[in-house]
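Extended Data, panel c. Modelled sequence:
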Amino acid sequence: MTSAPGVTLSGKADIGARSLFSGLRLDVAPGDWTCLLGASGVGKSTVLRLIAGLETGAVFSGGIAASDGVAIENRIAYMAQSDLLFPWATALDNVTLGARLRGEKPDEDRAMALINRVGLSDHAQKKPSALSGGERQRIALARTLMEDRPLILLDEPFSALDARTRAEMQELAAELLAGRTVLLVTHDPAEAARMGHRIYVMTSAGLEEADTPPAPPIRDFDDPETLQAQGRLHRRLLGRA
């Protein structure tokens, strides 16, 4: 993997006559986890999809650029809110999907190693219909990790997991994505407080950067300063900051 650049998005987005956001500037620092936190409908996923170059249903006016001046295309791995697994393919085939779509020979040994890391080695030959929602989410995470890209866009990647598995997958993702530039969209203040080098809160009024705990990510979920940061984020989301 080459050095991971930062990314900046600035501009406005409209859906029909409605402004989704305007005058927005988001700086995603190179090699760090940036968390974008906010309520549903404020445009978080739209920001993520704009950076990924995907259809959003919005008209965007502005710019998106990497800090190294190189095009962003082909340097992004994206994980959506839904797992988007192909129902007719096995878990292993879904993890190696990117290589096969590019006409490359899949590295099945590496894919199996990742499937093992997400705790599903016994399910590699199962199709998505035989997996639980949380298991499908873990296979989708393994597929994202398999792409080995410097820029990682994650849209609620741990939302379908139970509390224990969510904590484990957060720790695994932090380990395996170390040195990458990661933008994590989340509704969960606890997740942002635990994982973010930088945390932005997005509301209908715009974007504000929030204070992060002094300890580096990934932080202990029961660390007092992490819990205090979580509380501050909750209050900000409730408009009580």
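Residues 133-146 form the longest helix (14 residues). This feature is highlighted in the accompanying rendering.
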